[in-house]
Amino acid sequence: MLNNVKIRERDRYELYTASQMNNRVQVYAVGQYISMSPDKARRVIDQIRGRSYEEALMILELMPYRACYPIFKLIYSAAANASHNKSFNKGDLIISKAEVNKGTNRKKLKPRARGRSYLIKKPTCHITIVVKNITYLKEWIRLMKTGSIKERQEVLSDMTKRRSGIIVYNSQKDELEVI
């Protein structure tokens, strides 16, 4: 596909470094063929998306839905992957991406009277949890607040080259936020 599109070598290198940078700070866990409706799982996932690791675990423990337990296990697994494989601190993790996709339907036959049978469809779903380490963002914001003008310009030019985030300046609080 890249052969059909004309991309300069510099742009190809920048795209590669941006994806490489995301791989350094992201860890994921996937649960497939979980026996529940995707709509019921999305109801829980929407509550924890974008929250910190500890806050998400507390929310899941207190929610009264059956979908909470498999999602709790996936978040715990993603954090364990992050701490074991990449040596991240669990306190610095946020849930950057959480999605639920529809899986296959398991089909069973329920016997009825006079030799007939009814089809029972049990839906399944695939859940993907991506956690991101935010320590580099904290250091970057600290540098932007305390650094000299030249250092700030270097960091901003590096960010625009890598296309790794959107910078929002809040003039009322005098803060920089990265989205």
UniProtKB/TrEMBL annotation:
Keywords, in A-Z order: Chloroplast, Plastid, Ribonucleoprotein, Ribosomal protein, RNA-binding, rRNA-binding
Domain of life: Eukaryota
MF term (GO), any: structural constituent of ribosome
Xref: SUPFAM superfamilies: Ribosomal protein L22
InterPro entries tied to this protein: Ribosomal_uL22, Ribosomal_uL22_bac/chlpt-type, Ribosomal_uL22_bac/org-type, Ribosomal_uL22_CS, Ribosomal_uL22_sf
Complex and partners: Part of the 50S ribosomal subunit.
Annotated family: Belongs to the universal ribosomal protein uL22 family.
HAMAP family per record: Ribosomal_uL22_B
Matching PANTHER family: CHLOROPLAST 50S RIBOSOMAL PROTEIN L22-RELATED, LARGE RIBOSOMAL SUBUNIT PROTEIN UL22M
Protein name as catalogued: Large ribosomal subunit protein uL22c
Annotated organism of origin: Glinus dahomensis
Gene that this polypeptide is encoded by: rpl22
